[in-house]
Amino acid sequence: MLRGAEWRGRAFTGRSVAVIAPGREAAVIVPEVVRTARAVKVFQEEPDWLLPLPLPLPRALAVPAARLNLRLRVRDPWTRRLLTPDARFNRHRPRVDGRYYACLQEPHCTLVPWPVYALVAGGIRSAEGIEHHVDCIILGTTAAHREDLFA
């Protein structure tokens, strides 16, 4: 298990990796991990708006631009829905990232739609009861502080 930034600089060649992180952190972690891992399962705790390039836009235009970016880059409606932030809770400015959506569409990368229920021997149990067996778990900074995962 790797917490916070412990994943940086590591090769995951031949390994199955789970990433548990909010959208802002997953957008940083996943593109690096997917390059070398055999398989990546992403347990995104909450999505964030992403822009493909740094655009000097006021917040009122940044979110619609990020929404358009998502629509153009993710063709599957269900995946797009999973990656759409809830306006009631998402208060961050859109993050600049041009690789995350493409990585999630790689054949060896899976966005798991269910929240993490527990860490179990050999992997993760998601809320629908499926155990996802992985070789390595990466906890984003926010997820690393969640005591309920380790209870």
Automatic annotation (TrEMBL):
Family label: Belongs to the FAD-binding monooxygenase family.
SUPFAM superfamilies: FAD/NAD(P)-binding domain
Coiled coil: none
Cofactors named for this entry: FAD
Cross-referenced Gene3D superfamilies: FAD/NAD(P)-binding domain
UniProt protein name: FAD-dependent oxidoreductase
Annotated keywords: FAD, Flavoprotein, Monooxygenase, NADP, Oxidoreductase
InterPro entries in the record: FAD-binding_Monooxygenases (IPR050775), FAD/NAD-bd_sf (IPR036188)
Matching PANTHER family: L-ORNITHINE N(5)-MONOOXYGENASE-RELATED (PTHR43098)
Highest taxon above the source species: Bacteria
